[in-house]
Write a structure and sequence with these properties.
mainly beta, 11 strands
Length: 118
């Protein structure tokens, strides 16, 4: 199973970006999917997660500015990021808990760079 993120780039402070992450492969079911980020010199942190029911959970510091959503048939999740600040500069990763070939496992995407700079 592969997770492929897209939508990163350079944006000015106060701007918005929408990230996408699509899961692909055969014989799998992605149940909980989530977004994480890792800024230079910092540990990776979770932003938000979403289940197949659409139930979401957010780390408190991201509530209000970031929104996670999911397109089940497309095996895709999104992260809408608003009011971006230079401190949001990081590599953003997608993660999925999944069942693949009858076994429980997980997968990470390769990451997409987000740079917030004037």
């Amino acid at each position: 199973v592969q997770l492929v993120e897209s939508g990163g780039g350079v944006v000015q402070p106060g701007g918005s970006l929408r990230l996408s992450c699509q899961a692909s492969g055969t014989n799998f079911l992605a149940y909980e999917m989530s977004w994480h980020r890792q800024a230079p010199g910092k540990q990776r942190e979770i932003i938000a997660s979403i289940g197949r029911s659409g139930k979401t959970n957010y780390t408190d510091s991201f509530k209000g500015r970031f929104a996670i959503s999911r397109d089940l048939p497309a095996d895709t999740i999104y992260l809408q990021m608003n009011s971006l600040e230079p401190e949001d500069t990081a590599v953003y990763y997608c993660h999925a808990d999944l069942i693949h070939g009858g076994r429980i496992g997980d997968a990470w995407g390769q990451g997409t760079q987000v740079t917030v700079s004037s």
